[in-house]
Recover the amino acids of this structure.
């Protein structure tokens, strides 16, 4: 590629073909652009820009947005209008929002660590709304965490973290769309309580479990007593059943040790017949 000017070529030695290209259009487009770009003289007249895979190139001419370029190589004429291509990564990535100290509505200070997974879906918005989209998302997530967690009491937050995470994700998603972002997930990774509060919570949990164990024990005792009362009523109303029960007790005693039975004047057979 040669800049504008007058040039002379020897004839008869090689077949030379000269093609004149309009350079008023800042972007150089040609069917043989890839071959032309490899010429050692190309860098004198052209700026080469490569948009890598999984990225988008936002092109500006003299500070004005023109188009968003897909992955590939592009060439721009030097000395014309100022061409600038801002490369934007479109891959999914994460922002770690860590060490956030937030006070709940009942004046308990928590330290939260959250993770936001996102990707850029509108490259122009991502670079025009803010100079650092990751930092902007970090700040937005901070504000949402404080707004959602700060309106809840500690117990309500700890017992229903799933709904809190869902509310945080929905709010962050709405704000992120204004930055050209798509939120894949927002999750609370860690909840760190102050040392004294952690000890207190452990004591409360221990007391609650002890109370539950006592309640279960009392229920079992009540059921056993009720069963004994019903059995006693049944035996009192049925003398024959009562005597059979006595024989069962005697049988158990005889199995475990020596048993002497004093029958009195009548024999054992008569007493057994009376029981039957």
């Amino acid at each position: 590629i040669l800049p504008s000017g007058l040039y002379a070529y020897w004839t008869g030695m090689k077949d030379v073909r000269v093609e004149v290209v309009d350079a008023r259009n800042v972007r150089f487009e040609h069917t043989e652009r890839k071959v032309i770009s490899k010429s050692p003289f190309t860098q004198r007249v052209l700026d080469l820009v490569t948009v890598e895979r999984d990225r988008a190139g936002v092109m500006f001419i003299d500070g004005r947005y023109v188009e968003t370029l897909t992955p590939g190589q592009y060439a721009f004429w030097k000395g014309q209008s100022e061409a600038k291509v801002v490369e934007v990564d479109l891959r999914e990535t994460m922002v770690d929002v860590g060490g956030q100290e937030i006070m709940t509505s009942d004046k308990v200070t928590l330290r939260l660590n959250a993770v936001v997974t996102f990707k850029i879906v509108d490259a122009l918005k991502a670079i025009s709304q803010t100079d650092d989209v990751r930092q902007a998302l970090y700040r937005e997530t901070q504000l949402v965490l404080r707004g959602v967690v700060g309106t809840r009491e500690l117990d309500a937050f700890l017992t229903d973290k799933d709904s809190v995470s869902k509310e945080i994700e929905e709010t962050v998603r709405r704000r992120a769309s204004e930055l050209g972002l798509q939120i894949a997930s927002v999750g609370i990774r860690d909840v760190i309580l102050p040392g004294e509060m952690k000890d207190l919570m452990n004591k409360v949990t221990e007391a609650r479990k002890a109370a539950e164990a006592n309640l279960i024990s009392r229920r079992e005792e009540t059921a056993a007593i009720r069963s004994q009362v019903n059995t006693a009523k049944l035996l009192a109303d049925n003398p024959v059943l009562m005597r059979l029960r006595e024989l069962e007790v005697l049988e158990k005693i005889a199995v475990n040790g020596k048993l002497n039975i004093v029958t009195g004047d009548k024999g054992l057979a008569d007493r057994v017949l009376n029981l039957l």
In short: Residues 93-192 form a domain with the Tetrahydropterin Synthase; Chain A fold (CATH 3.30.479.30). The radius of gyration is 44 Å.
